[in-house]
Amino acid sequence: MNKNIAIIGSGFSALSASCYLAQSGYDVSIFEKNATVGGRCRQLVKQGFTFDIGPSWYWMPDIFEKFFGDFGKSVSDFYELDKLSPAYKIFFKDEIITIGDTLDKICKEFERIESGSSKPLRKFISKAATNYDIAINKVVLKPGISPFELVTPETALRVDQFFKTISGEVRKHFKNPKLISTLEFPVLFLGAKPSNTPSFYSFMNYADFGLGTWHPKGGMYEVIKAMAALAESLGVVIHTNSTVQKINVTNNTASSAIINGEIKTFDVILSGADYHHSETLLDQEFRQYSENYWSKKTFAPSSLLFYIGFDKKLNNVEHHNLFFDTDFETHAEEIYDNPQWPKDPLFYANFPSVTDKSMAPANCETGFFLIPIAPGIEDTDELRHQYFDLIISRFEKLTQQSVKNNIIFKDSFCIKDFIKDYNSYKGNAYGMANTLSQTAFLRPKLKSKKVNNLYFTGQLTVPGPGVPPSLISGKLVSELIKKHHSN
Asked: How does 27-52 read in b/e, with b if 16+ C-beta sit within 10 Å?
């Protein structure tokens, strides 16, 4: 008889794992507490406007292609992918930098800002490309069990890059503060300050400038729909509105789970839910990591998000827009070093309807605004209103248009919602940061050290935060399960 596997949650890593396990003949059931699949990647459809509630950047298209390729499929079998041109705009106080869809265009833009800067940029991206190849094809495909996983002939030659920082590396080659901010931006996806992120992670710059920024027509939720369809075609049974309340342990082995008040038995339990929350489903003696352990970890930021329907098309904006008209360093300190609401926050604005007409009614614009904030800080309606007024005023000034009177509706999502909807530790949005002390084998483990037949996947374990790493995390944990539980 086939082994019976329960997966808690239905985010990218859980769906990924479900596909690999079902392909290998296991009986896989997913239990999702919310009404729709996708975990943090959900969709809001309101008055004809479509919003991606969670992830909105589609980077590393090769990882998605590899995932579907493992099942004899291609991305194009499920959704239409467009390369954005330009990729995004960065608004500074006195200038706008446009990141094109080719390295040549980006080099031209760098030259416009600082004469001679294209030469070090090409060199920097070439090194980043090599790091990308090593990271994606060697390092991230390891299950985070041993420090020796990081030791390959390639990484041995680059060991210094794990002890230097992105910030130091960028500043060595570039002097213009705007170019520095542009090159430091991609590592924010890894959830840590550039000054705390190993320079090896410059591979994110290659993901940005080398591979480009893409958009699945209809939004990021199309990827979730594709993965769920693939999972079901492989035999995975998906249960929504199904809350896992407890994981029962018998003889140090995960034996059953209480789901919506009912006890169900399984051979293996895999949690793709928040790792800290997943361990609270166990009795205290079976938890691997104490509250003290979690409190000392560097978590990626949380976010204050606004979903806005505008009754007109907006001017001077692209699909993706970064607003760096305030001090990058100060905002980072207010997230990581001295957690508080930022005085002058950087923010991000996404208008998918600029390139995808399906995401807003005719002559309207779908707007998604994001302010990165420290996890665990106070979240009130008053603060949300205050910060919306602050960023929308800056937005109007920098894009030279009036939009406040064109808002049809405005919904917000912040720390309290991350906790309520995703059981997210301190309401973090992106998991645990990829600092040197939280890389690879130093992250929480895929396999429980205390409970047999219990596994974890997602952005708090290996390889780390972000959508492509989550797809890889699902693959890694499925291989670990197959190794220990042959069907």
From this structure: bbbbbbbbebbbbbbbbeeeeebbbb
Q: Does residue 341 surpass a pLDDT of 60?
A: yes
Which structure tokens are listed for 161? 């890059």
> Residue 7 is which amino acid?
I
Q: How far apart are CA 154 and CA 239, in angstroms?
A: 43
Phi, psi (deg, nearest 5) at residue 66: -65, -40
DSSP, collapsed to helix, strand or coil, labels residue 58 as strand
Torsion of CA 71, 8, 295, 338, to 10 degrees: 60
**Model confidence band, residue 351 (pLDDT cutoffs 50, 70, 90):** very high
Instruction: Report the alpha-carbon distance of residue 358 to residue 362 in Å, rounded.
Output: 9
- Strands 365-373 and 214-216, by their bridges, are unpaired
Q: Which two tokens stand for residue 342?
A: 């930022």
Q: How far apart are CA 433 and CA 438, in angstroms?
A: 7
CA 289 to chain centre: 23
- Pairing verdict, β 96-99 and 88-91: antiparallel
> pLDDT digit string (tens) for 302-327?
999 999 999 999 999 999 999 999 99
End-to-end CA distance of the chain: 8
Is residue 163 over pLDDT 60?
no
Could you tell me whether strands 320-323 and 88-91 are parallel, antiparallel, or unpaired per DSSP bridges? parallel
Residue type present at position 37: V
Q: Is the dihedral of CA 10, 206, 50, 305 positive or negative?
A: positive
Q: pLDDT, tens digit, for every residue of 57-94?
A: 999 999 999 999 999 999 999 999 999 999 999 999 99
* Degrees to nearest 5, angle at CA 160 with 157 and 164: 150
What are the helix and strand counts (H, E) for the chain?
15, 19
Shortest CA distance to 473 belongs to which of 15, 70, 28?
15
Q: How many CB atoms lie within 10 A of CB 80?
A: 12
CA distance 89 to 106: 11
**Helical residues (DSSP H) of 177-283, grouped into ranges:** 177-184, 203-205, 221-233, 275-280
Using 50, 70 and 90 to split pLDDT, how confident is the model at 173?
A: very high
